């Protein structure tokens, strides 16, 4: 992971925080200088270490929003 | 990954499908016989191979829904 270049363009929000300070966040991130994508993953408090996650484009995020609005949570 | 036991309890929806047939899905999955969690990741067409992803509990998914309803997509 060490050599992946990334830049967090926008922090959209935090979903949760663990006792150790890791946060599950939705961000807009540019990976390796490419076009920014939405990204859902865990981060340490300094945004230096990251956990596994998924990247999503706007279309996928819209479908996710529509799904979440249809189910009982 | 081969020895992780999982059971897809419910397929909530598909966000996208790649030309090779991989789908980005939101599922309710029990990992290693534990309590099912919401799970967002890529799967091959037979649900045998999986990509990286995130698991979320209901609270995190609610926050995600609320976030997605607040932003312009």
UniProtKB/TrEMBL annotation, chains A, B:
Coiled coil: none annotated. It comes from the Bacteria. Residues 19-66 form the Transcriptional coactivator p15 (PC4) C-terminal domain. InterPro entries: PC4-like, PC4_C. One of its GO terms (biological process) is regulation of DNA-templated transcription. Pfam families: PC4. GO terms for molecular function: DNA binding. This is Putative conserved protein UCP037246. The lineage of its organism: Bacteria, Bacillati, Bacillota, Clostridia, Eubacteriales.
